[in-house]
Every structure is written in C-alpha cells, then in structure tokens.
Amino acid sequence: xxxxxxxxxxxxxNYTLSEKxxxxxxxxxxxxxxKAEVSLESKRRQILLHIVAxxxxxxxxxxxxxxxxxxxxxxxYSVYEWEGERVNSEESNDNFYLLPLGTNIINISSDVxxxxxxxxxxxxxxxxxxxxxCPQCGKDLxxxxxxxxxxxxxxWNKLREIVSNQ
Length: 166
Ligand SMILES: [Zn+2]
Ligand SMILES: [Zn+2]
Known about the structure:
Elements: E1 2-4, E2 11-20, E3 30-42, E4 46-60, E5 67-82, E6 96-99, E7 105-107, H1 109-119, H2 151-165
Parallel strand pairs: 5-6
Antiparallel strand pairs: 1-7, 2-3, 3-4, 4-5
The structure holds zinc ion (2 copies).
C-alpha cells in the first residue's frame, strides 16, 4: 500500500488503496481485499495521514461454533516528518517516522497490518444473544431446544442427593 509523495502539493489529498490480505502478511483468518481510505495532509515539514483500514475475516462463533464473516476496521494516524526539519512536537505519536530527504514513496502496509491485527476481537459471537450449543448433547440451541437437564439442575440434584443421604 504505497503513496507516491514526490511533487506533492501542500494541502489535503485523498487516496483509496487496496491490497490482498495475504500480501499484507495478515493472519490467515483475513481474506480478500483490505482497503485503506487515506486522507493525507501535506505541510511544509510534515505529512499527516489519517487512515481508515478495513478487511474481512473468518471467525467461529465462541458459543455455537458457526462460521461467520466479520468486517474488521481500524482508524489511526501516522505522522511523517522530513529529516532535518524536526519540530519535536509530535514525538509522542505512536506512528512517527522520519522521512529521508528525497523520499518518493510512503508505504503504509505494515501500519495497516498492525492496526487490523489489533482490531481483531478476542471473543466473537454470531449474535449477541447466541444460545450456544448444549454442553451435553451438542445441539445448537439457536435452532432447537433439547431435553437435556440444564447444568444448574444437575448441580441441584447432586445437592438433593447429599441432603437426602444425611
Ligand atoms: Zn453463535
Ligand atoms: Zn442437550
């Protein structure tokens, strides 16, 4: 995902970039094209990028194991400053790069890769109220109810046994 910055006039420039997920080196759950909407602001000393990246990824529902596809999106800023023009104002920025004079290309692939990887949720559900699988018979409780006793009932039965044996 490259942006040509040679002969860039001062002001705002917009780009839509696209790259195959596997070419970006994203994990195997990602597939298809990853898109990045880039708003570039060229100043005398700096180039500021606002990037909205989006890709598609395959998941399994945490509860019912159904295969689902989700869009994963990440928004972030990157600051590029021309070498020898340091203004020291943006040093705390996470994505701060020094550009050697004469640089023609900015490559945002590794940033897009990193931010999309961070945006992958740890847990994912096919729907908020997914009922999951029955832990005993394995039926998908979103589709049908089973006749298994619930785990909580099972525990109560144990308790009743203990009480009745005393
Ligand atoms: Zn589910
Ligand atoms: Zn069951």
